[in-house]
Design brief:
This protein is an all-alpha fold and 286 residues long. It has one domain. It is 72% helix and 1% strand. It has twelve helices and two strands. A two-stranded antiparallel sheet has the order 1-2. A hairpin with a 5-residue loop joins strand 1 and strand 2. Helix 5 runs parallel beside helix 8, helix 7 runs antiparallel to helix 8 and helix 8 packs parallel to helix 12. The radius of gyration is 29 Å and the shape is globular.
């Protein structure tokens, strides 16, 4: 039982102490929780965990899964056509092109969605609330996109090898596994640069339709103008990424061609990515 209320010397009433029997009769929600034992976490979120979360945002969503299913379907159709065309008599390099081209063209959309979904679905407040250091989130998205690109390129190598070996075994074609190192470098760079460029456009615009449309329209329009307009042809040699990457697939690059490639990569990938990260760190979260 509780005792009667007591008064202080100033005459103000103070609550009487509660007995153990009355305390035990209180509902569990009304009890004051005891202090949690152990040390409180004071460090920041590990960067590896941020990368893992961004990978899940890219792949473990409905849009991401359907994009991957679409890429797989296109690759399967392309390899099937090559398997029956000309008796499947194609070198490994052509099978590799059939697997890398769909990935390089469509996979960047996954990188775009990984950024723009934060703003279109209003989850940026949660993301930056859990990790207020926005540059770390931006770099985690970049690393996750590049990891997806590396995994996609490795998978394309395996699928091309399986298709070529199947043609050797079942169609009786002669084996031709010869691929120059620069060709492999070009195929891998095509996939990775596409992922980085898609991520950059997503950070720049933070709007899914606008980022996807401009990602496909701007480079294509520039390539067409550079080929048709005479006074733009000299600039296109330096700034048309599709044109500057062609020598990689041919297996030979001169010093001047390396300079052309570096300039176009800086203009279409590095500069948009830098500006996109800057905008992401300063955009208002609603």
């Amino acid at each position: 039982m509780s005792t009667a209320p007591t008064t202080t010397t100033a005459g103000a009433a103070r609550p009487a102490p509660v007995s153990k029997s009355a305390e035990s009769a209180m509902p569990a929600t009304a009890r004051v929780p005891s202090r949690i034992r152990g040390e409180r976490p004071t460090g920041r979120v590990p960067f590896g965990r941020l990368v893992h979360v961004e990978l899940r945002k890219m792949l473990d969503t409905r849009a991401g899964r359907w994009l991957l299913i679409g890429i797989a379907a296109i690759i399967a159709v392309a390899l099937t056509i090559m398997f029956f065309d000309n008796g499947g008599d194609h070198p490994y390099g052509l099978y590799l092109q059939a697997t890398t081209m769909p990935m390089a063209l469509i996979l960047p959309v996954v990188g775009i969605l990984a950024v723009t979904s934060e703003w279109s679905q209003r989850t940026a407040l949660v993301t930056f609330g859990l990790e207020p250091r926005r540059p770390r989130v931006a770099w985690a998205k970049t690393v996750a996109a590049l990891l997806v690109g590396v995994a996609a390129f490795a998978l394309s190598l395996v699928l091309a090898g399986i298709a070529h070996q199947s043609a050797i075994t079942f169609r009786g074609i002669p084996a031709d596994w010869s691929v120059e190192g620069l060709v492999l470098l070009g195929a891998g760079a095509y996939v990775l640069l596409g992922m980085a460029q898609g991520l950059a456009f997503g950070m720049l615009l933070k709007n899914t339709p606008a980022a996807i449309v401009l990602f496909f329209v701007l480079p294509t329009a520039w390539s067409i103008l550079g080929a048709m307009v005479s006074w733009l042809q000299d600039a296109a040699v330096w700034l048309d990424l599709n044109q500057t990457m062609n020598p990689l697939f041919e297996g030979s690059l001169t010093g001047e061609q390396w300079a052309h490639l570096g300039t176009s990569v800086a203009a279409w990938v590095l500069a948009p990515l830098a500006v996109g990260i800057w905008r992401l760190t300063r955009a208002e979260v609603k």
